[in-house]
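debug: dumping io for the single-chain case to check the tokenizer round-trip. Nothing else runs in this session.
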Amino acid sequence: MNTRRLAPAALAVALLVGMTGCSMVSPQATTIAYSAADGVNIPDSGPLKVRNALFVADESGENANFLAAIVNDTDTAATLGVTAGGVEKTVRVPARATVSLGFDGAKPLLFEGLDAALGTNVDVTFRSGDGDTVVYSVPVLDGTLPYLKEFVPAS
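debug: decoded output
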């Protein structure tokens, strides 16, 4: 008689463990960091933080504008070096400021001779102040999206 009373309780415990056990071993998707934009966030390697970095290229992929936001949370100005396609560009960021490349009326960085296929990624070297050099894959987009159309370099 005791086994008949224990059977439903054992079944309920088995169902409870079986139905919730997956969440104990699988990672929660909301805890995985990712770039929720068209561009990518570059891992921090120095005083400057590069956010939403991307290229907008012409149809040939030969010329592309580099767009990003560069954040300096420190009390001293710093310089970011961006190298792509063998060409290096630098951006000076004042202390406690954010520099926008391409948005808010600011000019993007033009890379001529990039020779990148649309829809691919380009390896870009970032050097932030005195920090380590970081190589990261940055997407190359075209002007299909209406808000990127103005950033396609003139032929």
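debug: round-trip ok. The first helix runs from residue 2 to 20.
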